[in-house]
Every structure is written in C-alpha cells, then in structure tokens.
What does this fold into?
Amino acid sequence: MEDLIRTITVYALPVLFAITLHEAAHGYVARMFGDQTAYVMGRITLNPLRHIDPVGTILVPIGILLLSSIGGGGFLFGWAKPVPVNFGSLRRPKQDMVWVAAAGPASNLVMAILWAVLLKVLITAGIDEPFFMQMAKAGVFVNIGLMALNLLPVPPLDGGRIVTGLLPHGLSYQFARIEPYGLFIVLALMATNTLNVFLRPFYFVGLAIVDLFI
It folds into this structure.
C-alpha cells in the first residue's frame, strides 16, 4: 500500500498537468482560428478544476497504477472533460480542424521535453532526490504516452480528427462516420493487447524528439 501511495504521489502532478494543458491547448488554438466556444465557457485556463473528469482524470489512472502495483498493470492513460469546439465556427473548418486537433498532442510533447530538461538539470546539479527524479521521469513518459494515444488515427481521438481534416472531402466524410465506434475500437485494441503495437511508432518518435533537447 505504501508503494501504491508513493506511486500515486509521483504521478499525480504529471498526469494532472498533462491532461489539463492538453485540453486547454485545444481551446486556445480553436480561439486563434475563430471559435470562441471554449473561451466563452471559461475552458481556456490552466485551472485543473475546470478540466478534471472524475473518472478519466482520477479513477482510471489510479486504477491502472493499482494494477501495476500488483503486477498486472499496463499503459497509463486518462482523459479530462473535452474542451468544446464548434468546428463550424473556425475560419476554414476542415483545414483548421487539423491544427486544433494537433494542439493537444503537441502540448504533451512540449511538456515531455520540459520534464526531461528538468531531469537533466537535477542530474547535472548533482541533486540526487529520488522523489523529484521519479516525478520528472513520470512526466516524460505520461506525456509521451498521452501524445501517442491521442495520435492514434481513430476519431474522435486527435489523430482521427487530423486524418479527417487531411483527407479529400469524400473520403473525409466516410472516415468521420467511424467516430461513434471509435471508443469501441480502442477498447478492442486494448482487450486484444494490440494497442501498444499501434502506439509504439508514435511513442518512439516522441522519445526521439525529447532526446534532441537533452
């Protein structure tokens, strides 16, 4: 139990920041391209209380950490309350959708880099404080993991919206029709232990980019 509490303490801030900034980034970029929905609803904020989903932000990550502590854990992930975006209000809805969707994973990549730089600074300064070093490592892997998951090309994940925005109109419409089944597709990949196979390329590319900064 002590190990579980310590693990939750180490991961709490990285998970909270990763999910909160991910959602805020969507709203900020949507506002840049003409949609004021998130701004009017007060969702372009770094206040985590505006983004926390009791299940996705708290229960699911804790449950995965609990499974990890007894040897049956897996890929750590979670989610927040989705930031509302009215794609029809964007100046160029189809093209701008790509930038709005990409903002979330991009914010996670930036945070992973910042956590990695912090870890490098701690090591360089000779600060051998296990708790903060573990938190910095958690920050890198949580953000790269969340980035990879969201880049999965399955709507309504960000990767799915990016693909929808890039495809020609006819194919884009057909691809977007997958969205009601997106969650079931992800769950099926998890149930068959094949999710990591599809995420691994995004994960390794993310880590390679982080390595460039340290």
DSSP finds nine helices and no strands in the chain.
